[in-house]
TrEMBL record:
Transmembrane segments: none annotated. It is found in: Bacterial flagellum; Secreted. Keywords: Bacterial flagellum, Cell projection, Cilium, Flagellum. Its main location: other. Belongs to the bacterial flagellin family. It comes from the Bacteria. The keyword Nucleotide-binding does not apply. Residues 3-140 form the Flagellin N-terminal domain. InterPro entries: Flagell_FlgL (IPR013384), Flagellin (IPR001492), Flagellin_C (IPR046358), Flagellin_N (IPR001029). This is Flagellar hook-associated protein FlgL. Residues 326-397 form the Flagellin C-terminal domain.
Length: 408
């Protein structure tokens, strides 16, 4: 059989080219440290590696989310820690103000210090997370939660709660509405907290409910029902604004007076014997659900009111006692939220540990699928180089053979 010169060159060149391609591929694998450079190298391993890489990327994103949540929750915890310290300071001042030897001027100094604490609480309630987003506005992160008003503060946010995905099946709340922290101070199980003055000499009973038809007129302010020196007529004063909202009105047991969306009803005690209101008797009417700013403002107003008589001092003591109880309830709100924040931070630490373990496992799986066995690859490289050199030398020898060489 005769083999043409062109066939010898074509087959030899193709063989050398194939060997060169194999050698180049091995060199690329060694340079990259990867066994699988393209999906055609190992389709099954490539598909599996793609799934693991996606899971690893998702795990990395969850770790980033957890760090963001941790930063946000840590800021909230720090703010509420300062709120707790401020509330403890307020309680100390209330106890100090109850000193019976204090003059009106000395109580005024305490009121000034309480005003400073109130301003501090307002600033803490309007804290941001460091990026300009308010912590306690719900979804309305660009709106300051509270603004001052006469008698306390107004909440401007909403009731939304923002969440962040920190694991495949877990979302953590970043913050809550300010109402859950600084408000919801239940002073009474009913709609209003109605208290008789400690200096009352009569035994009448007062009650307050929301008037449905005029509920839009509710102010959230504090009111006082005060009887005249005969106990036969009364006035109603908005203690927050100081305005008399019901002028002197004759008292009729069981009759109802409606003012600012509130139905006020005063009745003689049941007896026997039946006891009517006494001269100068008073009843305080507060919302059954107060906020912290209203409570502190009420205490400040009470301290700024002269207490030069026995009755005035009883009024002051009653206001301080009620204010102290409300501060305790508010402190419970804050501590409850802080406990929730601490639980979330602990959960983030646990999820971080789990996420780190997943990351290590994913990288080990990818290494097993894609990484190169250097010993095997270098051995194969040496073999390919030897084979290529032999093929090149053999091609040179073969291509040089001809009839003329034989004759010569």
């Amino acid at each position: 059989m005769r083999i043409s010169t062109s066939t010898i060159y074509e087959s030899g060149g193709a063989r050398i080219s194939d060997l060169q391609v194999g050698l180049n591929k091995t060199q690329q694998q060694i340079a990259a440290g990867r066994r699988v450079l393209t999906p055609e190298d190992d389709p099954i391993a490539s598909a599996r590696a793609l799934v693991i890489s996606q899971s690893d990327s998702l795990n990395t994103q969850f770790a980033t989310n957890r760090q963001s949540a941790k930063n946000n929750l840590s800021v909230s915890e720090s703010v509420l820690s300062n709120v707790t310290d401020t509330l403890h300071n307020i309680k100390s001042l209330i106890v100090q103000a109850g000193n019976g030897t204090f003059s009106d001027a000395e109580r005024g100094y305490v009121a000034q210090e309480l005003q400073g604490n109130l301003d501090q609480l307002m600033g803490l309630a309007n804290s941001t997370d460091g990026t300009g987003n308010y912590l306690f506005s719900g979804f309305s992160t660009t709106v300051a939660p509270y603004t001052k008003k006469l008698g306390g503060a107004t909440y401007n946010g909403d009731q939304g709660q923002r969440y962040l995905q920190v694991d495949t099946s877990r979302q953590l709340p970043l913050s809550g509405a300010g109402t859950a922290i600084f408000e919801n101070i239940r002073t009474s199980p009913g709609q209003f907290n109605v208290q008789s003055n400690p200096s009352n000499v009569g035994a009448a009973v007062a009650a307050a409910t929301i008037n449905t038809a005029t509920s839009g007129s509710l102010t959230g302010n504090n009111y006082e029902v005060a009887f005249d020196n005969l106990g036969t007529s009364f006035t109603v004063t908005n203690k927050t604004t100081g305005a008399v909202v019901v002028p002197l009105t004759p008292y009729v047991s069981g009759s109802t007076v409606t003012v600012d969306g509130i139905d006020l009803k005063i009745t003689d005690s049941g007896g026997p014997p039946v006891v009517a209101p006494g001269p100068g008797d008073k009843f305080s009417v507060q919302p059954g659900n107060q906020n912290l700013f209203e409570t502190v403002t009420d205490i400040i107003n009470a301290l700024n009111t002269p207490a030069n008589t026995v009755a005035a001092k009883k009024d002051l003591n009653a206001a301080l006692t009620q204010g102290n109880n409300n501060i305790d309830k508010s402190l419970n709100n804050v501590l409850t939220v802080r406990a929730q924040l601490g639980t979330s931070l602990k959960e983030i630490d646990d999820l971080d540990s789990e996420g780190d373990a997943k990351s290590v496992a994913y990288k080990q799986d990818l290494s097993a699928l894609l990484d190169l066995d250097y010993a095997k690859a270098i051995t194969e490289l040496n073999q390919q180089q030897t084979t290529l050199q032999a093929a090149q030398q053999s091609f040179v020898k073969t291509s040089g053979l001809s009839l003329f060489d034989y004759i010569r």
